[in-house]
Amino acid sequence: MTHDALTSGIDLTELDPAIRPHDDLYRHVNGKWIERTEIPADKARYGSFAVLAENAEEAVRDIITGTEAPAPGPLAADASEGDKVAALYASFMDLERADALGAEPIAEDLARVRALTSIPELIALVGELERQGLGGFAGMFVDNDPGDPARYIVFVMQGGIGLPDESYYREEQFAQVREQYRAHIARMLQLAGVEGADRLAELAFDLETRIAASHWDKVASRDIQKLYNLRTFAGLQEITPELDWSAYLAAMGAPESAFAEVVVGQPEAVAGVAKLLVAEELDAWKAWLAWSIVRSSAALLSQELSRANFDFYGTALTGATEQRDRWRRGVSFVEGSMGEAVGRLYVERHFDEDAKAAMDGLVEHLIEAYRESIEQLDWMSPETKVRALEKLDRFTPKIGYPVKWRDYSAITVDSGDLVGNSRQVAEYEFTRELGKVGKPIDRDEWFMTPQTVNAYYNPGFNEIVFPAAILQPPFFDKRVDAAANFGAIGAVIGHEIGHGFDDQGSRYDGDGKLTDWWTEADRTAFEERTGALIGQYNALSPEGADGQTVNGELTIGENIGDLGGLAIAWRAYLRSLDGAEPPVIDGLTGAERFFLSWAQAWQQKSRPAETVRLLTIDPHSPNEFRCNQIVANLDAFHEAYDTKPGDRLWLEPEQRVRIW
């Protein structure tokens, strides 16, 4: 295909001539869209990712509804995956049955909570319900061991709270949210038919506040070196003497052997929640458990309970004013239950294998560009460069979909039992996850479905993963010139590779092992650069945040990924030209198409409550800064637009941060 046959990938009519890219690239590209776009009532934020996610939801709905819904009742043990998917969806969409049942599906569990007479009984019941999907005293999951990446290990992390983060229980800016939350607990318990709802809400909220008091904050909780605390089973028991782990695991149906060694992520927080497991706290724990049961099931109960749950978790926390359509929530339920079963059909219908081949080429260019850049770094010693290049050589790209699909034959489904289906799925996942311990690492496993609009880097596997659904405009389009693809999906690829070399990913070697492969001087030079980037972001406050600024320490990993990703994508684009001059298309130079495409990918509008929530808990910076602050650090941007001192995006050359 000749350059003449390709388009620029940029809609020139969308560019705002009143806003110069030199001052605000983000609004130069997205300003008209932001001005005319109303955030849908069921969304807290809306933009390019949300549009693609909605498209994927519609495609999945068509797949699900294309299978004839099975007759009401339990499916045969040998039912096909398609029938199971259809039955799951049918159980969610049966509003009449959900409303008729009300809170009845959880009534027995709530009665068992009322009947508890001791802390050991409470621990046993929490364990039993945790197997069915309830959040327990701690967060638990299985992953490969950072110290020995060839084995699986259980991680035990802080948990036990219903607000997004420990800061919500203590910071003045969330005082109103706390009052709303306390009232919400009481309302939900009342709707579920629990007696003494007001008193129980006070007890549950007070206990959660004390649990949160020992939680680590978000910045500390992303430091892998602090989080990697290996403990034997006896060592775990030692830091939580009040929690009988043998009894807890027995009630859970978890083999104690799987906990022979564990990683305790935040020991003080895990110990802190256990310290509260004493007889005088029994009433508080019963209130907490009743609330946990209601909260975890609310979206699956009557419309009244589901809407009331949304009033807090949707409207109060994020500003969204309407629940998503029932069918969209049904799709999410199915995807959370049997996502790869749907994903296999999604790929058959919607994934262009040519896109996979084109992505392979893009990834190759990005990796080679990283190689060139690492070799040319002026701040890194030859010794550390060798190790960095070894890690780069061991990167595993995964594109589109898994080579091996998950087996869901163990799940049984009843089209008339929504809560039962949810518990069946939870038990299946519980058994599948714990079943990994002691077995060889499955390097073919994916941790996102193909229909997910996202991408990720997994440090323990040293892999970059790009699901099928993100490989479409505005991120990737085989019909447009390379500059636009490198500026969007190329920068996403570069971002994910960059996570292998961010402040945390750089602690892992090419085999996924947590080890220090840096010289002391190189780590110091790296941290000088990351410190400068932290300082830049700490000074930024997005629109709608009422002056609250970005947390540069919380977002540093993603900011490093963005900075390296875009810089390396630019290098990769030039490399792809093989020495030729970039063509001018639609009156735009290659550099202009590249940077406009980058800005286009971050198109988003947010509600103020959501903006504040994300500033508090999200390791990603607001989209306007992911766009603007990154380009301000790139010489190529300043050259493309001939920026000058006085332009808002001008940074003095010595203030521009270059890491990779």
From TrEMBL:
Q: Which InterPro entries does the record cross-reference, listed alphabetically?
A: MetalloPept_cat_dom_sf, Peptidase_M13, Peptidase_M13_C, Peptidase_M13_dom_2, Peptidase_M13_N
Concerning SUPFAM superfamilies, the annotation shows:
Metalloproteases ('zincins'), catalytic domain (SSF55486)
Which cofactor(s) does the record list?
Zn(2+)
Peptidase M13 N-terminal domain location, by residue? 21-402
Source organism, top-level taxon: Bacteria
Q: Which family does it belong to?
A: Belongs to the peptidase M13 family.
PROSITE patterns recorded: NEPRILYSIN
Source species of the chain: Leucobacter rhizosphaerae
Domain spans labelled Peptidase M13 C-terminal = 454-657
| Record's protein name | Peptidase M13
What UniProt keywords apply to this chain's record, in alphabetical order? Hydrolase, Metal-binding, Metalloprotease, Protease, Zinc
Q: Does the keyword 4Fe-4S apply?
A: no
- Keyword Hydrolase recorded: yes
